[in-house]
Amino acid sequence: MTRYALLLRGINLGKAHRVGMADLRELLRAEGHGDVATVLQSGNVVLHSDLPPGELAGSVEQALERRFGFPVPTVVRTADELLAVVATDPLGAVATDPTRYVVSFFPEELPAEVAEFLRGVDPGDDAFAVDGRELYMWCPHGQLESPLAAALGKRRGGPVGTARNWATVGKLAALLQR
Q1: Residues forming a β-bridge with 45
Q2: How crowded is the C-beta side of 103, counted as CA atoms within 13 Å?
Q3: Domain annotation for the chain: domains and CATH numbers
Q4: What CA–CA distance (Å, rounded) separates 145 from 160?
Q5: Judging by beta carbons within 10 Å of its beta carbon (0-12, 13-18, 19+), is residue 24 exposed, middle or buried?
Q6: Residues 174, 167: contact at Cβ < 8 Å?
Q7: SS3 for the chain, per residue?
Q8: How far apart are alpha carbons 54 and 126 in whole angstroms?
Q9: pLDDT per residue rounded down to tens, the chain (178 residues)
Q10: pLDDT given at position 153
């Protein structure tokens, strides 16, 4: 069995798309996954599974839609892949607040045009780095005040990912190492 981190997109934001973590753990156990644990209320799961990553994402997405009645895009990383995200830490030298240092996880490698697009934005005090399937962003004034986040929010097309702050990424990494 492989240890994975699942990152569910768009749940428990306001009143829409509510998913209880106990219900989520129960569903994933019923689907045959082991050692299921959740981190916070925003769709962060660590578990063991026999499925390969692509199959696991699709299986979980189908189970979530059947159970909760709405689609939940799911990004999967193996324990080694998530720990590599932490080890890479390309903005660690400038990011001083883990709640304002954000990693967006994508199911596939980011197209070069995404980085090119971001290079064309006046970042103010923000900084970013792209590494394969991850986009790291340092937003010292918060995401709501971030020129980079605002530009990405207005951009249409391209891959859909899910973002976690560095504090949450660290909690997932710690749980994966147990």
Answers
A1: 6, 38
A2: 26
A3: 2-80 (3.30.70.1280), 84-176 (3.30.70)
A4: 21
A5: buried
A6: no
A7: CEEEEEEECCCCECCECCCCHHHHHHHHHHCCCEEEEEECCCCEEEEEECCCHHHHHHHHHHHHHHHHCCCCCEEEEEHHHHHHHHHHCCCCCCCCCCCCEEEEECCCCCCHHHHHHHHCCCCCCCEEEEECCEEEEECCCCHHHCHHHHHHHHCCCCCCCEEEEHHHHHHHHHHHCC
A8: 33
A9: 999 999 988 776 667 787 888 999 999 999 999 999 999 877 899 999 999 998 999 999 999 999 988 888 999 999 999 999 999 999 999 999 999 999 999 999 998 999 999 999 999 999 999 999 999 999 999 999 999 999 988 887 767 889 999 999 999 999 999 8
A10: 86
Write out the two tokens for 12.
């428990």
Alpha-carbon distance of 121 to 134, in angstroms, equals 19
Q: CA 169, CA 99: separation in Å to the nearest integer?
A: 10
Report d(CA 8, CA 20) in Å as an integer: 13
Q: Flag whether the pTM goes above 0.85.
A: yes
